[in-house]
Design brief:
The complex is a heterotrimer of chains A (249), B (324) and C (306).
Chain A: E1 4-13, E2 16-26, E3 31-35, H1 42-50, E4 57-62, E5 65-66, H2 72-77, E6 80-82, H3 95-104, H4 121-134, H5 149-161, E7 167-171, H6 179-192, E8 197-201, H7 205-211, E9 214-219, E10 222-227, H8 229-234, H9 236-242
Helix pairs in contact in A: 3-4, 3-5, 4-5
Chain B: H1 4-7, H2 14-38, H3 41-66, H4 74-90, H5 96-118, H6 123-143, E1 153-154, E2 160-162, E3 165-166, H7 170-192, H8 195-205, H9 207-213, H10 217-243, E4 245-246, H11 253-266, H12 273-291, H13 296-309, H14 313-323
Antiparallel strand pairs in B: 1-4, 2-3
Helix pairs in contact in B: 2-7, 3-7, 3-10, 3-11, 3-12, 4-5, 4-6, 4-10, 5-10, 8-9, 8-10, 11-12, 11-14
Chain C: H1 3-34, H2 41-59, H3 62-83, H4 93-115, E1 131-135, E2 138-141, H5 142-164, H6 166-176, H7 178-183, H8 188-210, H9 220-235, H10 240-268, H11 271-296
Antiparallel strand pairs in C: 1-2
Helix pairs in contact in C: 1-5, 1-6, 1-8, 1-9, 1-10, 2-3, 2-4, 2-8, 2-9, 3-8, 5-6, 6-8, 9-10, 9-11, 10-11
The chains are: A alpha/beta (249), B mainly alpha (324), C mainly alpha (306).
Protein name (chain C): Amino acid/amide ABC transporter membrane protein 1, HAAT family
InterPro entries (chain C): ABC_transp_permease (IPR001851), BCAA_transport_permease (IPR052157)
Pfam family, one (chain C): BPD_transp_2
Chain lengths: 249, 324, 306
């Protein structure tokens, strides 16, 4: 049984159909990459799956639990966590406080208002653990907004990991990165697949072909093709879509 | 792991920050005694009013400064608290604790209802819709002819505090208000560095990210809004006992604006911000009133000066000096 | 209900609505284009009312008084923009609220210093003091008819200005997408100053015209500011068309609430309760309208930004 199944997702903006009956599945332990030219509807799809946008139709099931009607935060609690294409960290806070905030969401109630958070050793341990996982343990006291782009992206991933997700949604994790940072991110994602299945939205074809077990191609809001890397590479329609826009080796 | 980060939040003045609140508390507690000897009863009353306004301002600072919710209707909850006392006194209740406790509950309930609707909007629309609800409460109060309508309602007999003492005992009532204000202040200071406070500042800084981290953003905001409304109601109830009088003008929108102004003046989202803002604003008003009937414009000028010269409020100025 | 009475109230509502529109037009443009919340807009309205009342009394010419009031207020607004508002464009809404609230405090004291603390009587121009027989059984104050006519004329003028002139095009460009307008080389600073002065002129006009049928007193700006803000929120911030529709809606709802709700309540409720609730419901009507609109359309009826 698939870990994650999205069935016939639909999203309309006025007359425009941004997501047109999209169906996707992710198997346990799998990295499923979602590619497609700009404007194909990738971001909309990520927002539908994560619940930040309400869908007009379709269903989403993760590990046997129906998520379709759930709010975004409830989906996270059921194991669907995401990062953002435009780095979304708490820029004015230290890396440590960023991590603490993420960890706090998943251990105990955030309505507690009498105890100082700084006295909760358990939270701090979890935060440190996360920092180790993405390699940020030397930067705990740095202010997030002052860090280099690549480091901020790692922090963004760490924030998503705090939920101990079953499925991790990575929205263009390599966006705006140089080759060195990209390679580091590829290595990080390769390590993360041991912990969670991954739905990877990415423009960087090198990364996609290195990491993905399966690839789906989105165009004009529809799934154009879906299959393993070899299948996608040889697919004539996919080649047509990408001809001249992006290189598909 | 290091503790530096948390102590760094109180820059270099750790020692002062530790004893100053206690010194202040002692000085204030002595005021009624000293005041009575020097014949300064009026000023004891003035400080009592100031303490009450500080409760309301502290609650507003919590949702606005930490939670980023720019509400322009906080005076509405003060009014609800005050009118709850009026309604209970009118119905024959004579215990201060009953009346004040009820005021907290009723204004909290109003805040929960109003927040549930208002928090679905953002930014200026939130500002306007909270204002709209406060205006509704204002007109409701005007229409309550049983409680004096536009003219207001006089509370002729003081409320009982227990052991035969009443709010008519100026010194005792002062100490009660001081104790409540100190409790509210400590609670707000603690809540700000609790899980709840951290979650709230996270929402202020990046609401979408908080939702995607798994936080029930709407419920957290509503909880803060409800708590702040309840505390504003408490301030309203105390104010009713302080003035022995309640009128709809308590809820006029300029009262909400003034409260907002005091909080920003003192320093948004800063521990001492609301307290400092209220103190400066009320003391300046009082002093200016002594010298001239044109006492509004210097305050206006000060606001403009603060916006341009001290955008982080007066508490921000102290930070600069201590860290420079 | 007596149809004549209904018709009369309808006219009153339209008149109030049009005056609200004069105020709201400037407010919504300043908000929409400069993203600036100017609480002191009501103070400009007050300035217009005071100057007009005093000049009218001294000179005997109402038209002259209105023109002087508009000119004087625009001058004040020019200084205000130069010294304060201009520096607020880049700030957040809270800073704008605080600073312009400061301006309100200064303005109220200034008016008190110049014209004294008590309300000023603004007289209706003698030629318009009498009623006009609109229908055989409906005499209507001539002055209120003039108010309606001027309000409509200004609305049409503003429509033409915004939709069919070059200046208007720049204004619309600024309102719908400020960054893009800057990118296209629009001299945004000049457009801002123009819009601010225009808004001030309209506010002063409204103040001057409302003077004879309302109280010219300190605090009148704060009292009218809130309905004007309600109007721009209902209409959709930045939309002049929205402000027009919303102003008429609010004017009608408010007037109708005051005129029809009390008798309506008296017919269904016990008299004592009706006497209590009538004024409350009437006062609340426009806020309920706003809440309802925001629940259905969170960005107002005519959102200026797509």
């Amino acid at each position: 049984m698939s870990l994650f199944v999205a069935q016939d997702l639909v999203k309309r903006f006025g007359g425009l159909v941004a997501t047109d009956r999209v169906s996707l599945s992710v198997e346990p332990g799998e990295v499923h990459a979602l590619i497609g030219p700009n404007g194909a509807g990738k971001s909309t799809l990520v927002n539908l799956i994560s619940g930040l946008l309400p869908a007009d139709g379709g269903s989403i099931v993760l590990d046997g639990v129906e998520l379709t009607a759930m709010s975004a935060h409830d989906r996270v609690r059921h194991g669907l966590s995401r990062c953002f294409q435009i780095t979304s960290v708490f820029r004015g806070d230290s890396v440590r406080d960023n991590l603490l905030l993420a960890v706090q969401a998943h251990s105990g109630s955030s309505f507690r208002c009498f105890r100082r958070r700084s006295t909760e050793a358990g939270l701090r341990e979890r935060a440190l653990e996360l920092a180790h996982k993405v390699g940020l343990e030397d930067m705990l006291d740095r202010v997030a907004g002052t860090l280099p782009h690549g480091v901020q992206r790692k922090l963004d991933v760490a924030l998503a990991l705090a939920a101990r997700p079953k499925l991790l949604l990575l929205d263009e994790p390599m966006a705006g990165m140089g080759p060195e940072d990209s390679q580091q991110m590829v290595e990080l994602i390769a390590r993360l697949r041991a912990e969670a299945a991954i739905l990877l939205i990415e423009h960087d074809m090198d990364a996609v072909f290195q990491l993905a077990d399966r690839i789906s191609v989105l165009d004009y809001g529809k799934v154009l093709a879906s299959g393993d890397t070899a299948y996608i590479r040889e697919h004539p329609e996919v080649q047509a879509v990408y001809l001249g826009t992006e290189e598909l080796r | 792991m290091s503790d530096e980060l948390h102590s760094a939040a109180i820059p270099s003045s750790g020692g002062v920050a530790r004893w100053l609140p206690w010194a202040l508390l002692v000085a204030l507690a002595l005021l009624p005694v000293v005041g009575a000897q020097l014949g300064l009863d009026y000023y004891v009353g003035f400080v009592r009013r100031m303490l009450i306004v500080m409760i309301a301002a502290t609650s507003l600072n919590f949702i606005l400064g930490y939670g980023g919710m720019a509400a322009l209707g906080h005076a509405g909850f003060i009014g609800v608290g005050a009118y709850t006392v009026v309604a209970l006194v009118d119905a024959g209740v004579s215990s201060a604790w009953t009346a004040w406790g009820a005021a907290v509950l009723v204004s909290g309930a109003f805040a929960a209802l109003i927040g549930a609707v208002s928090l679905r909007t953002r930014g200026v629309y939130f500002l306007m819709i909270t204002l709209a609800f406060a205006q509704m409460l204002y007109y409701l109060a005007v229409s309550l002819s049983a409680y004096g309508g536009d003219d207001g309602y006089g509370l002729y007999s003081p409320l009982e505090l227990g052991a035969g003492r009443t709010t008519g005992d100026a010194a005792l009532f002062f100490w009660v208000v001081l104790a409540i204000a100190a409790l509210v202040f400590s609670f707000a200071s603690r809540a700000a560095v609790s899980r709840f406070g951290h979650a709230l500042t996270g929402i202020r800084d990046n609401e979408t990210r908080m939702e995607a981290l798994g936080y029930p953003v709407y419920r957290l905001k509503l909880a803060a809004f409800t708590g702040a409304g309840a505390l504003a109601g408490l301030a309203g109830a105390l104010l009713a006992s302080h003035n022995n009088f309640v009128s709809p003008s308590t809820m006029h929108w300029t009262e909400s604006a003034t409260l907002l102004v005091m909080v920003v003046l003192g320093g948004l989202g800063r521990r001492w911000g609301a307290v400092l803002g209220v103190a400066v604003w009320l003391v300046l008003s009082e002093v200016l009133k002594l010298y001239t009937e044109y006492w509004h414009w210097p305050l206006g000028l000060m606001l403009i000066a603060v916006v341009f010269a001290a955008p982080r409020g007066l508490a921000g100025l102290f930070d600069d000096r201590s860290s420079a | 209900m007596d149809p004549i009475f209904v018709f009369e109230q309808l006219l009153n509502g339209l008149g109030f609505g049009l005056m609200l529109f004069l105020l709201a037009a400037g407010l919504t443009l300043v908000f929409g284009i400069m993203d600036t919340m100017n609480l002191a807009h009501g103070s400009l309205y007050m300035a217009g009312a005071y100057v007009a009342a005093r000049v009218h009394e001294a000179s005997g010419s109402f038209v002259g008084a209105v023109l002087v009031a508009v000119a004087a207020t625009v001058l004040v607004a020019f200084v205000l923009e130069l010294l304060i508002v201009k520096r607020l464009y880049a700030r957040d809404h809270l800073a704008q609220v605080i600073a312009t609230f400061g301006v309100i405090l200064i303005a109220d004291d200034a008016v008190k210093a110049i014209w004294g603390p008590s309300p000023v009587m603004a007289t209706t121009p003698a030629a318009l003091a009498g009623p006009v027989q609109l229908l055989p059984e409906l005499p209507y104050p001539a002055y209120r008819l003039v108010l309606l006519a001027v309000g409509l004329l200004v609305a049409v003028g503003l429509y033409v200005l915004v939709n069919h002139t070059r200046v208007g095009m720049l204004v619309r460009a600024g309102a719908s997408n400020r960054k893009m307008a800057e990118f296209m080389g629009v001299r945004v600073g000049r457009v801002f100053s123009f819009v601010f002065a225009l808004g001030a002129a309209l506010a002063a006009l409204a103040g001057a015209l409302m003077g004879p049928i309302s109280a010219v007193q300190i605090g009148m700006g704060e009292a009218i500011l809130i309905p004007a803000l309600v109007v721009i929120v209902i209409g959709g911030i930045g939309s002049v068309r929205g402000a027009f529709v919303a102003a008429l809606l609010v004017g009608l709802v408010d007037t109708a609430g005051r005129a029809f709700l009390p008798p309506l309540l008296r017919s269904v409720l016990p008299p004592a309760l009706a006497a209590d609730l009538g004024p409350a419901f009437a006062g609340i009507a426009m806020y309920v309208l706003m809440a309802a609109v925001l629940i259905l359309k969170p960005a107002g009826l005519f959102p200026a930004r797509a």
